[in-house]
Structures are given as structure tokens and as C-alpha cells.
Amino acid sequence: MKLRLLTIALALIAFYGAQAATIPSDSLFRKLPAEVIDISIPLAANPVRIDSLPPYTPTESERWWWTRLKQHRLNLADTTVRYPAFLGFCVKVYNWADKFFNSYDSEYVVGTGKRWKVRVGSENWMDSYWLSLLEPDRLDIGMASNLYSNIGAYLQYMAVSVGYSYDIGNFFGANGDLKHRKYEFGFNCARFNVELRYHENTGGTYLRKFGDYNKGHLFRQKFSGVSLYKFGVDAFYFINNRKYSHGAAYNFSKFQKKSAGSMITGVTFNTRKINFDFTQLPDNLRPSLTVPPANYYFHYRSVGALVGYGFNWVINPRLLINITALPALAVTHCYEDSQEGSKTMLGGNFIGSSSITYNLGNFFFSAIGRIEGSIYHSAHYTIFSNISNFSGNVGFRF
After folding, report:
1. Residues 6+ apart with CB under 8 A from 297
2. Are 190 and 102 in contact (CB under 8 A)?
3. Residues 148-159: tens digit of each pLDDT
4. Which value, to the nearest 10 degrees, does the dihedral of the CA atoms of residues 277, 278, 281, 285 take?
5. N or C: lower Cβ tally within 10 Å for the chain?
6. CA distance linking residue 75 with residue 67, whole number of Å
7. Are 194 and 186 in contact (CB under 8 A)?
């Protein structure tokens, strides 16, 4: 019975399908009422296009700088942001200065895209001296201080940095009654660099050579009679500032894309107080001293012109190596309380630095070395004093 009903159903479907196939398709629509045939959708006479809508204009409260700052959307280059009168003037001055002093050729130098940096670093430095007593008999004396080490953490927003460093020697009790301090401040932009440095060291020096003592060979013996005070300012200008970035090598503020170098010119000023108190000379060295065992004090300032060169080697997009040499011819003036009294003579200064920087995304790693020297030369004395510094840094930009 079920099979018979299924057979009848299939036969009816086949019959009506064949009949539908023989009817022209348009005849179906001719038999329909007109209102059914018209299936168009009426449109407005002037349809509104999305791209013709006026741009969105922020409200006064949305344009206020404090609102943007709270929303983390403050951009100093955005001219639509509203500021109080004085703050707005400061922002305009900043934008002008940023454009004037920090413009680069983007084929060679690009920004990091980040304004904040945090880093930790270890800094190690020492000062050394070479003193030649020329009369009555020549005596050459070489001295070097302890190696001092600091470790610190720093947070930087653009050109402003705050941080704290700790002398590792204090932790181990190695400094004892030594007195040493070091403070530094620097400002860097595309066109120029300014550095202020203060160093002080008392009581942490060792004799390494003393005339013919130990047959003229090197030795190491504590000598508490040496003290150093030094304050200096160096300002230099990068001639090829469009293609060479000093900040990419030493401040982690830019990326150097192609190798480039630049002539560097500038001025240097420093004041030094160096005291050699030979009354504290150990007894075993006194026979080699060719002058009376007295206090020899050198107090002088130098002003000079720097002319040098710096070069950035881009080994690959992540690795950058820099070498910079800045010799200076200086005019040296001795103060009245100096060993030779008030006098003016020619002298010389030298600044040399090198860095290796590796960038890995927003992380950076660097090793930086620097030496800064001064030459004092008269008919009676020649003094070469220098401060050597080495630092290692690990940081992150955000």
C-alpha cells in the first residue's frame, strides 16, 4: 500500500514538472497584477553619501590639554589642542625648537617613536696623572686612582632624566676614608651637544712609577697625598647634523640607518685643582725625590677650541659602533695660589669616546668608553691628568 502511494506521488510530480517547463517564463509575470510586477524600492531624490558627511569636530572640553593628557592622547605637535596662554606659548616654542634642532634626513636617521626610557647601568671610572719635574733633575711620576664603580637606575622622558646611583665600594666597605664624587649633566639634539662634568677625588691614589725607583719599572704603592677637583663644560656642534646622530650612539634617542660621520667643532672650559703633597711620600721613595718634600699645588683653568670628528658605523640594522675624537688647543691661566703663581700659557685638552649599541625592538644594550685629558706645560713642570670612564647600560623604550 505504501509503495503504491509513493509511486502515484512521483508520477504527479513528473507530470506537473513537465507542464511547467513548457510555459514561457515571461507569461507567468504577464498574468500577475501590475503592482506585483513593480518590485522596485523607491529611493530618496538626493541620497546622502557617507563620504560627503562633514568631519567630526571635537568639543571644547575634548580639545582641552588636560583632557587629552588624562586620556593618554596628548600630542604636543597637534595644533588643535587648547592650552592656557603661557603653557601654549611654551608648547609653540618647544615645537619650533624641536623642528629646528632635531631635524634629520630620514634616509639616514629616524626617531625611535617613543618618548620614555628606563635603564639600569653600571659606571666605572678612575683618574690618573703623569707629573714630570723638569728642574733641577728630571723626575717622572706616574699615579692612578682606585677604580670606582656605581650602579644605578634611571627614568627619562625625552630630554629630562631622573635616577639614583649607588657606590658599590661603600657596600663592601672598600672606600674607607676616601672622598670621591662625580656629577654629570648633558643635553643632546641633532645640531649640538652640551656636557657639564664635576669630579672630585681625595686619598684614593696609588703610585705606579717614581723616577728610577724599582729600576724604573711599574709598581703599586698607596699614596694619600694626591687630590683632584675638576669642573668642566664642553659644547660642540655637528657640521653634518642631518645625517649623523650622536644621540643614536650615546643617548639611545635615535636610530642611525646608514653609516655617516661629521666634523665637530666647539668650545671647552674646565677648572682643575691638583695637589701633590710629597710630605706624605712613603719613606722608601724619598731617596728618589729630586725636589724638596713639600706641597705642590696646581690651580688653573683652560679655555679652548675643539675640532674633531665622529663616525657611526651601522654594522646591521641593530648594531651601531661609534668613535669620536675631539682634541682642543687651549689657553691656560694659573691662579695666584698655584705653584707658579699667576701666569698664562698654551695648553691642550682631549676628549675621546667610543660606544657599541645594540637595539632589539624597544630594548637597547650599550657599552660606552670615554677619556678626558688636560695638559699643563711650563718651564718647570709638565702635568697630564685624565679621567677615564666606562659604562654598561640595559634599557627599554616605551
Report:
1. 273, 274, 275, 276, 337, 338, 339
2. yes
3. 888 989 888 776
4. 150
5. N
6. 12
7. yes
Q: How far apart are alpha carbons 146 and 175 in whole angstroms?
A: 9
Three-state DSSP string of 307-318? EEEEEEEEEECC
Greatest extent of the chain over all pairs of C-alpha atoms, in Å: 142
C-alpha grid cell, residue 205: 691614589
Q: Which amino acid is at 58?
A: P
User: Cell for 6?
Assistant: 509513493
The domain limits of the chain are: 60-101, 109-397
Residue 348 pairs in a beta bridge with 329, 375
pTM of the entire structure? 0.76
pLDDT tens digits along 265-298: 999 999 999 999 999 999 999 998 988 889 999 9
DSSP code at position 82: B
* Three-point CA angle 159, 245, 119, nearest 5°: 45
CATH no., domain 109-397: 2.40.128
